[in-house]
Design goal:
It is a single chain. The protein is mainly alpha-helical. The protein has 2 domains: 6-75, no CATH class; 110-347, no CATH class. 68% of the residues lie in helices and 6% in strands. The chain is built from 13 helices and 6 strands. Strands 2-1-3-4 form a 4-stranded antiparallel β-sheet. A hairpin with a 2-residue loop joins strand 1 and strand 2. Helix 5 runs parallel beside helix 11 (276-300) and helix 8 packs antiparallel against helix 9 (221-242). The longest helix is centred in the middle third of the chain and has 37 residues, at 110-146.
Length: 374
């Protein structure tokens, strides 16, 4: 595994990357002070060096200066702002949001996300078979009650055949996306976009729950199921944004505006592919509940009520089973656009190189050129 790369702020300029051992040597030499900010790829924010375990010994760190008196303390801190971390430290409501995101990042760790993926794959396969059996019974009952030969045939022949096909396709493409993600690393210069994306995802999850509850009060239980399922997926997506290594996104380093735009696009394009196992499991569990409701309607309600809901429920269940294939295909199509953007960004560098050769400049005269890093 590659050694972690650290960055630090000194004299209002970002320095690095350096290894942790080099960072420790800087601290021992006094070049890096306890109050200087440090960070590494994957961390959502910059922290004081004194807060990093193993960097300073306890007897070398002076306690922070006493707090200033109320009334002038906030204004004084705001006047001394040097970066975003200073601003967040100065305002209590921003510190609260940062604290909440930090707790969520610790709770939705990469290890938990990987464990959820393994559970989701198994749960989704079982849920698909259970939902198919419930759909078969519902279609048979609806066909008999409404005297529809088509519904009976769909239940006896169509549902078993479609279940086998979509289950096989979903299983084949379940892990194909993981291989694409490993071969498609991307970079972002900072975690700002990922942090805001995570915050928006968590807020969206709360809104999805509230919308589902409101729909349930109005009598739409299917909307409640969709809202709860969507909320769980949004929380998972927010966890991915707070753990960028799980989606093969490297945070840190310098990037041009074009490179940063490609990094953001790559994250958005890779997100559905990384969500495949979880959406497969959670979506099909919701599909089982919807199939139970449909079976109950086919028995207790008027036949036309069940007929109206039968095809949407069946389409939703089998569509979720095909989500691994759909996400794989979508990623390939979108990645073509990333390759095109990358080629456009390379053109100015190639023109500079050609101009330098035309002027008789040696290839190495301009110094090293950094690649796109995407």
């Amino acid at each position: 595994m590659a050694e972690e790369q650290w960055y630090y702020y000194r004299n209002d300029e970002r320095q690095g990357p350096v290894s942790f051992e080099e960072l420790k040597e800087l601290a021992e030499a006094g070049t890096l002070g306890p109050d200087d900010l440090i960070s590494r790829p994957g961390m959502p924010e910059w922290i004081p060096a004194r807060d990093q375990e193993g960097l300073f010994s306890a007897d070398t760190i002076l306690p922070p200066p006493p707090a200033t008196k109320k009334g002038s303390g906030l204004g004084e801190r705001l006047r001394r702002l040097g970066n975003a971390a200073d601003l967040i430290d100065s305002l209590p409501h921003l510190r609260f949001v940062r604290s909440i995101l930090g707790r969520l990042r610790d709770w939705i760790s990469q290890e938990r996300l990987d464990a959820l993926d393994r559970w989701s794959k198994a749960a989704g396969s079982v849920a698909l078979l259970v939902a198919a059996a419930l759909l078969l019974l519902a279609f048979l009952i609806l066909g008999i009650r409404s005297k529809s030969v088509v519904l009976v045939l769909v239940g006896l022949v169509g549902i078993p055949l479609v279940t086998v096909l979509v289950h096989f396709i979903g299983a084949v493409f379940m892990d194909a996306g993981g291989s694409l993600l490993r071969e498609s690393p991307s970079n972002l210069s900072s975690a700002a976009f990922l942090t805001c994306f995570a915050l928006a995802s968590f807020l969206g999850a709360v809104l999805a729950i509230l919308a589902g509850v409101a729909s349930a009060i109005g009598g739409s239980w299917m909307a409640l199921l969709g809202g709860l399922g969507g909320a769980v997926v949004l929380v998972y997506a927010g966890g991915l944004a707070l753990s960028p290594a799980s989606i093969h996104v490297d945070v840190g380093g310098n990037a041009s505006a074009g490179e940063e735009a490609i990094g953001i696009l790559m994250f958005l394009f890779k997100l559905p592919l990384r969500l495949v196992p979880f959406v497969f499991g959670v979506g099909l569990l919701v599909g089982v509940i919807a199939s139970v409701v449909l079976l109950w309607q086919s028995i207790a309600a008027e036949p036309f009520v069940g007929q109206m809901a039968s095809m949407p429920v069946a389409s939703g269940v089998f569509g979720l089973a095909l989500f691994p294939f759909a996400a794989y295909l979508l990623f390939l199509l979108l990645y073509l656009q990333v390759d095109l953007l990358r080629a456009v960004l390379v053109i100015p560098r190639k023109l500079d190189g050609a101009r330098g050769r035309a002027d008789g400049e040696a290839p190495g005269d301009r110094g090293p050129r950094r690649g796109l890093g995407v």
